[in-house]
Write the structure tokens for this entry.
Amino acid sequence: MNDRRTRYPGPIAEAKKHPHTLNARGFAADAALAQVLDTYPAHLIDINLYDYDDEGQASLKTGARGRLSGEGLLEAIQGGRLWVNLRGVETGCPALWAAAMEAFKDIQATYPGMKAVKNAGQLILSSPAAKVPYHFDASGVVLFHMRGRKRLFVYPGDETHLPEIAMEQVVARQTAEEIPYSRAFEAYARVIDLEPGEALTWPLYAPHRVENLDRFCVSLSMDFQTWPSRLRNGALYTNAVLRSRGLSPRFTDGMAMPELAARWAASLALKRVGGLKSRIATFERDFEPEIGAADGAGAIRA
Ligand SMILES: [Fe+2]
């Protein structure tokens, strides 16, 4: 039987829930969140507002941190349509991070051969009707859900749903766009609802999207690299550079470990000499969170 939902090797063959207790320890309560928002470094806060057309294609507006207090920003999120990522939880919320790493170790122990060499996290605060578009993460992910309810759609990691050339572009930061999405993919989605106290993992690189289910949601998204994921990301980067020079490297999904390792080593050398310049500009912000404004997004104040 082959129930793997991805063409990439790795210990996680399919999306699976695991229990955790982070929510029971008060990390997602209003007062705790307001305090976190009050002190969190503004450069580590991403405030996103997604819109969708009739075909389900997303467009993104981004917000500046603005001047709201932590309590005010929390209220704007709870009454708006915002998706707020607090990056660098490792340093931004050390107590939450320590608890999450304990929980991660328990989950990792259930997958023989899985060994994370680097973990990082973002605390996600999102409005009751917010949705995140179809994308993949160039890492393993454990999504610890702590408050509200959300629905995860996880898709197969095959060339149709996850084309390697598009992955290369994302890994090499040549596009802020995500991988291509079509409504036809929905027939292949695994749909999983998450309640507080549930964590979800899925196969490395598996495309996914998220819809909140009518409540303010709090989750900790932990991403992790293993040596195999590091090597493959390096190989994808090297392939992006080769492709930018008019070559047609073969896809990494047909490469064995020695070839992946060689391409990873090449990626380190390429990055040292400036390889590919990121084409993702530090873009202008479109709005500032505002309590009572449409979607929680008010005009930028000078
Ligand atoms: Fe993701």
User: Anything to note?
Assistant: The first helix runs from residue 30 to 39. Residues 135, 137, 141, 208 surround fe (ii) ion (CB under 6 Å).
